[in-house]
Amino acid sequence: MKRELLDNGNIWQKSDGRWIGMVRYKDEYGVTKRKSFSSKKKKTLQAKMTEYVANFQDQVANSDESRKPLKEGMKNWLRVYKYPEVERTTYDRYECTAEHQIYPYIGKKPVGDITPADIKKLLTKHMNAGYAFTTSKKAYSLLKMYFKQLYQEGAIPNNPMAMIDMTKKDNYLAAQNKESKPQCDLVVVFTDEELEKIKAEAFKRFANGKPH
Fold it and tell me: Which ranges carry the Integrase SAM-like N-terminal domain (predicted)?
């Protein structure tokens, strides 16, 4: 939940002549809180409160994930959330996928403005550009993780990935005029050198003559 100002402040004067001010706001947990100010002069108090309100609004704007460009938001998400929880090779793959298959297409667009149509267009461009199915699917999976977390944390009102499915592999390859062959139809041919290595491994024995 985002922090929110509930008013621009109220001012009153105490019996001893001092001026008191108070601004009400909600914190990131939705709890209503108050910020109090005091001064001997009303003008000084008003200046303090005006500065506080302006700074508060700037902080809210800077922390609003929905208004950040996707490239900035996703880079921060990868560093903060993914770097600590995945293997380094996985993290490097995430960064590479984002850099080459996501940012060039929607990296400059504000996160909150991205629609399901934008995602479908991105995946279609992958297909038309000749990207391998697995390459495009990695981008799809990364976007799905990213937007799911933003939605769960309340940073965006809607998840654009909720209604998007990855194109079926056969259809993806057909659009590229490629054929998806079952694994049983593929024939692997080893070189003579590879066959010698296989035989060497197959006939290895322990020192007592027992086969591995």
Answer: 71-125
